UniProtKB/TrEMBL annotation:
GO terms for biological process: carbohydrate metabolic process; glucosamine catabolic process; N-acetylglucosamine catabolic process; N-acetylneuraminate catabolic process. The gene is nagB. Belongs to the glucosamine/galactosamine-6-phosphate isomerase family. NagB subfamily. Pfam families: Glucosamine_iso (PF01182). It is an enzyme of class 3 (hydrolase). Keywords: Carbohydrate metabolism, Hydrolase. This is Glucosamine-6-phosphate deaminase.
Length: 242
């Protein structure tokens, strides 16, 4: 595991965007595994800026996103489909048919999870998977659990997640109760993994996940077992890592 220290959020975003750019330049037909959340927003902005300058070409790139809320349609501005278009896909020359996000509107969970896992396999897996880190060590929607869930699956969101998300929706009833997510095995199949982390509020979980025991109670700790992981984190996030 390679740990790269950045000065602050902006520096983290530029360093991470540089790593993704290098991947796109070195292998123009790469499969990029992508994440949503607040942490990658700055790096997507940076990629868009470099694309607009003519430094990047996404025309042969394919993407697979980590997760999506079940029951939210694509037009909903809280869907991860919407997020990805808003922050990246609408601003670069990626082909829409080469972008993939789990289909939150497929009611048959087993069918959708099987389809998505097979799709990732048919693309040969992600060349580079981008991840954020949850405060409890979650990656994708893989929450702390007694065992690592391997494949793409449907998760019941915890009460605290539903509560935290309530503010983004018109009423509590509209908050999704489930989500589709790549499994830990799906993530671990990626050839390279890039984790971005920012802020002092993540310092404790960074220390636990990257220098503590490997346990499904801290899902990100499994990344210690992957042969090519780069963590780009700012000083604040690294402040408790010994
Ligand atoms: C996003 C995702 C989540 C986030 C994590 C961190 O697709 O799967 O695991 O990466 O919740 O979120 P932020 O970056 O908002 O702290």
């Amino acid at each position: 595991m390679r740990i790269i220290e950045a000065n602050d959020y902006k520096d983290m975003s530029r360093k991470a965007a540089n790593i993704i750019s290098a991947q796109v330049i070195m292998k123009p037909d790469s499969v990029l595994g992508l994440a949503t959340g607040s942490t990658p927003i700055g790096l997507y902005e940076q990629l868009v800026e470099w694309y607009k300058k003519g430094d990047l070409d996404f025309s042969k790139i394919s993407t697979v996103n980590l997760d999506e809320y079940k029951g939210l349609d694509r037009e909903n501005d809280q869907s991860y489909y919407y997020f990805m278009h808003d922050h990246l896909f609408n601003h670069v020359n990626i082909r829409p048919e080469c972008t993939n996000v789990p289909n939150g509107m497929e009611p048959d969970a087993e069918k959708e999870c099987r389809r998505y896992e097979a799709l990732i396999d048919s693309l040969g897996g992600a060349d580079l998977q981008l991840l954020g880190l949850g405060h409890n060590g979650h990656i994708g929607f893989n929450e702390p659990a007694p065992v690592f869930e391997k494949m793409t699956h449907c998760v019941d969101l915890t009460e605290s997640t539903i509560e935290a998300n309530k503010r983004f929706f018109a009423s509590a009833d509209e908050v999704p109760k489930q989500a589709y997510t790549m499994g830990i095995g799906t993530i671990m199949k990626a050839k390279k993994i890039l984790v971005v982390v920012s802020g002092e509020d993540k310092a404790e979980i960074v220390a636990k996940a990257f220098s503590g025991d490997v346990t499904p109670e801290v899902p990100a700790s499994i990344l210690q077992m992957h042969q090519d992981v780069t963590v780009v984190a700012d000083k604040a996030a690294l402040s408790k890592l010994s």
